[in-house]
Amino acid sequence: MIKGIAASGMAICFLAACGAKQPDCGSNATISTLKEFFKKYPDNVLFEWGFYEQHKRKNPGNLLEDRAYKDEESNAAASASWKVELIRTLSKNPETQAVSCVAKVSVTAPGWDDWAERQVNYTAQYTTEGQLYVEVKWRGS
């Protein structure tokens, strides 16, 4: 369950209740926290890029002033499906018990022709209170 959120530039940080010493990049807790975050806060680089590309193919024109575009985007976000795949551990810090990870994150929504995907770097570690702290950084954005 997401406990809090803070955003800064291209980094997104959030907390989830958990309790081991050092998290694993591909653990159920880490991946489900990432998916839950993306579902709850779809206004991220990947979803907006994917939605824009899909909408642009079907409805060329000035999208920024199109009210129907924003309504359609909200509806698509509510029914979007997320995948986290190709998860790799880049490093483990024995002092802070943090792990640095990278994965392919994909999103699709009803009416989309295909999946939008990006490589995502993220770090995970437990706080002194036992909560899982995850920071996400989008590659190529």
What does this protein look like?
Strand 1 and strand 2 form a beta hairpin. A 6-stranded antiparallel sheet has the order 1-2-6-5-4-3. The chain has helices at 28-40, 45-58, 67-78, and strands spanning 2-8, 11-17, 81-93, 98-108, 116-126, 131-138. It has 141 residues and is α+β, with helices and mostly antiparallel strands. The two termini are 27 Å apart. Helix 2 crosses helix 3 (67-78).
Write a brief caption for the model:
The chain is α+β, with helices and mostly antiparallel strands and 141 residues long. It has a single domain, classed as Roll (Nuclear Transport Factor 2, Chain: A), CATH 3.10.450.
What is the topology?
Layout: E1 2-8, E2 11-17, H1 28-40, H2 45-58, H3 67-78, E3 81-93, E4 98-108, E5 116-126, E6 131-138
Antiparallel strand pairs: 1-2, 2-6, 3-4, 4-5, 5-6
Helix pairs in contact: 2-3
Strand proportion, as a percent range, falls in: 35-45%
Structural shape: elongated
Based on the structure given, which CATH architecture is correct?
Roll
Mean pLDDT: 77
In the CATH hierarchy, what is the class? Alpha Beta
Strands, count: 6
Class from helix and strand fractions = alpha+beta
Q: Approximately how much helix is present in the residues?
A: 25-40%
Side-by-side strand order of the widest sheet? 1-2-6-5-4-3
Calculate the terminal CA-CA distance, rounded to whole Å.
27 Å
CATH topology: Nuclear Transport Factor 2, Chain: A
- What string, H for helix and E for strand, traces the elements in order? EEHHHEEEE
